[in-house]
Amino acid sequence: MTEMKPVTEATAVKAPVLPDAQTVTDVKHWTESLFSFRVTRPASLRFRSGEFVMIGLLGDNGKPLLRAYSIASPSWDEELEFYSIKVQDGPLTSKLQHIKPGDQIILRPKPVGTLVHDALLPGKRLWFFATGTGFAPFASLLREPQTYEDYDEVIITHTCREVAELEYGKQLIENIRQDELLTELIGEGFADKIRYYPTTTREQSPKMGRITNLLKDGTVFADLGIEGGIKPETDRAMVCGSLAFNLDIKEILEEFGLREGANSEPKEFVIEKAFVG
Ligand SMILES: Cc1cc2nc3c(=O)[nH]c(=O)nc-3n(C[C@H](O)[C@H](O)[C@H](O)COP(=O)(O)OP(=O)(O)OC[C@H]3O[C@@H](n4cnc5c(N)ncnc54)[C@H](O)[C@@H]3O)c2cc1C
Ligand SMILES: NC(=O)c1ccc[n+]([C@@H]2O[C@H](COP(=O)([O-])OP(=O)(O)OC[C@H]3O[C@@H](n4cnc5c(N)ncnc54)[C@H](OP(=O)(O)O)[C@@H]3O)[C@@H](O)[C@H]2O)c1
């Protein structure tokens, strides 16, 4: 039998205390490479829908291992939601993908970012262009009342390789359409302004192809019944994807006469990277 010893201050194993710790409340795995999770929100954290923060875990060396993450929940939500890739040999996500409710993560409460309403001049139609986890900031903005107060129409395009990679966004939009709290916050019929345009590039789906090609050949406008394409007088856009995607969309938007804005200088479109590399 193992000898029992009283637990004293000296013998007790102390749970490691994370700096800026928040508790995981929910985790959902969508595919082998995608998951979403919710954590408690620090009482002092204020952010604008569309912004990102640094989150992470303690690394093996005992130091925080942090990465930029868009907050996928809206600014009014009492918790914080994130939508994440699982990079199998990624320093952070090889570990983060195993979190469970009750676990703690580190969250630095300093939100920043350009995908915010303040960085755009007033307009009538708002485009969200996302690939992969680039959907995350739009998951926030689609649940933000100001999006519907400021615009008559909100078009969200999401391009992924495979159909299953669209599921988080698809379900989120279905839930928005039925959400009573959002209807109370924003007003009856607000969700009729949303136009969802999902496309895949490597697996058969109702709409195949890169959104960039579908914009260039006019398919998007024909499908959505938009005459004359994107116009600088009425259309505003937010873009979030890989660097290559962002550059390609930027070129297309500039050809339509839109200019890139920033927090300090609002214009017709804004861009943020969904990841580096
Ligand atoms: C402003 C900003 C916001 C971000 N928001 C999110 C977010 O909301 N959700 C999220 O999952 N990631 C987001 N990222 C990426 C995130 O910061 C990390 O890179 C990611 O969590 C992987 O971390 P890692 O340490 O496991 O691997 P890393 O060493 O950071 O990345 C390894 C490689 O994996 C690939 N990769 C990394 N992230 C992604 C991704 N999201 N999609 C596809 N390939 C990727 C890249 O090729 C990268 O070089 C964001 C990045 C930036 C700059
Ligand atoms: N998701 C996966 O199944 C998978 C599998 C193996 C490796 N990876 C690696 O994981 C990383 C991220 O993969 P990901 O699929 O999340 O992101 P991604 O490679 O950026 O692709 C996401 C979607 O955006 C499209 N896209 C990419 N560049 C574009 C551009 N310049 N213009 C228009 N559309 C563009 C892709 O179309 P295309 O398919 O035409 O490129 C794809 O449908 C990459 O480094 C990738 O090599 C991912």
Automatic annotation (TrEMBL):
It catalyses: 2 reduced [2Fe-2S]-[ferredoxin] + NADP(+) + H(+) = 2 oxidized [2Fe-2S]-[ferredoxin] + NADPH. Residues 17-118 form the FAD-binding FR-type domain. Keywords: FAD, Flavoprotein, NADP, Oxidoreductase. One of its GO terms (biological process) is cellular response to oxidative stress. Belongs to the ferredoxin--NADP reductase type 1 family. PANTHER family: FLAVODOXIN_FERREDOXIN--NADP REDUCTASE, OXIDOREDUCTASE FAD/NAD(P)-BINDING DOMAIN PROTEIN. This is ferredoxin--NADP(+) reductase. It comes from Ruegeria profundi. The lineage of its organism: Bacteria, Pseudomonadati, Pseudomonadota, Alphaproteobacteria, Rhodobacterales.
